[in-house]
């Protein structure tokens, strides 16, 4: 019998947990679908036999999608932060999320069509923040003007 994890992120979906998990598995590395569990009886937002929970990982992080109905919505208070190595990788994830019914936000943030927030964050930006001082300020100020992060612009800002 597999060992039960101590901690798993539970994401509340209206009714599309399985579709979201499939999209994540198709989009991000080290991401896969796990078991799909159906409701053993009727529940407030569904019927016996409907998909109730879906096990999946997102970039190695264990998650469960719960089809809990429309009572609660996603918010920016929770997000997945995906580190990218270059502009093509940044573009690939950003475009997959935004181009599949999602929406852009500011400073590398976007939402998928289920309302889950994502930070698509090039490592060069994280490294600039860790460097501190003027380098961090220049990179931060450049980022504040962006939606999707422009790696070349962040690198130029880092150099001054």
DSSP strand content: 25-35%
Helix content range of the residues, please?
A: 25-40%
Determine the structural class based on helices, strands and strand pairing. Answer: alpha/beta
Q: What is the number of strand segments?
A: 8
* Number of DSSP helical runs: 5
Q: What's the short version?
A:
Helix content is 32%, strand content 28%.
Task: Tell me about this structure.
This protein is an alpha/beta fold. The chain is 32% helix and 28% strand. It has 5 helices and 8 strands. It has helices at 17-27, 87-98, 123-131, 133-143, 151-159; strands at residues 9-13, 32-38, 51-58, 61-67, 79-84, 103-104, 109-111, 117-122. A 4-stranded mixed beta sheet has the order 1-4-3-2, covered by helices on one side. It has a 4-stranded mixed beta sheet with strand order 5-8-7-6. A hairpin with a 5-residue loop joins strand 7 and strand 8. Helix 3 (123-131) packs across helix 4 and helix 4 packs antiparallel against helix 5 (151-159). The model has no long low-confidence stretch (mean pLDDT 96).
